[in-house]
Amino acid sequence: NPAQDVITINSAFALQRVAIYNSLGALVQQAVLTKEISSSIDVHSLSNGMYSVEIVSEKGRIVKKLLIHK
Questions:
Q1: Phi, psi dihedral angles at 15 (to 5 degrees)
Q2: Biggest CA pair distance of the chain
Q3: Angle at alpha carbon of residue 44, lines to 47 and 67, rounded to 5°
Q4: pTM for the full model?
Q5: What is the pLDDT of residues 31-69, one digit of tens each?
Q6: CA angle 36, 69, 11 (to 5 degrees)
Q7: Can you tell me the distance from the alpha carbon of 55 to that of 39, in angstroms, rounded to the nearest whole number?
Q8: Can you give the pLDDT at residue 70?
Q9: CB within 8 Å of 60: residues ≥ 6 apart
Q10: CB atoms within 10 A of CB 21
């Protein structure tokens, strides 16, 4: 599902950082977290398009695709 204003990330493990990169690989937004297992990230300022979301937790790193469509 495309996102418009906010994305929510839930994890079984403590989150440490969430970073959003544009299609060129440039960092456009980052949140440093303090051992939260859930986080809402405001993405309303991002333009329409495809992004990569890097999620770093105490157990490792995963990258997911994010579509912004307003």
A1: -80, 145
A2: 33
A3: 55
A4: 0.90
A5: 998 888 999 999 999 999 999 999 999 999 999 999 999
A6: 20
A7: 11
A8: 85
A9: none
A10: 17
Cα dihedral 12, 1, 52, 7, rounded to 10, equals -60
Say how far apart CA 45 and CA 57 lie, in whole Å. Answer: 25
Return the structure tokens found at 60: 């490792």
Q: What is the DSSP string of the chain?
A: --BSSEEEEEEEEEEEEEEEE-TTS-EEEEEEEEEEEEEEEE-TTSPSEEEEEEEEETTEEEEEEEEE--
Neighbours of 63 (CB within 10 A): 11
CA distance 49 to 46: 8
Residue for token digits 């990230």? 41
Is 90 exceeded by the pLDDT of residue 2?
A: no
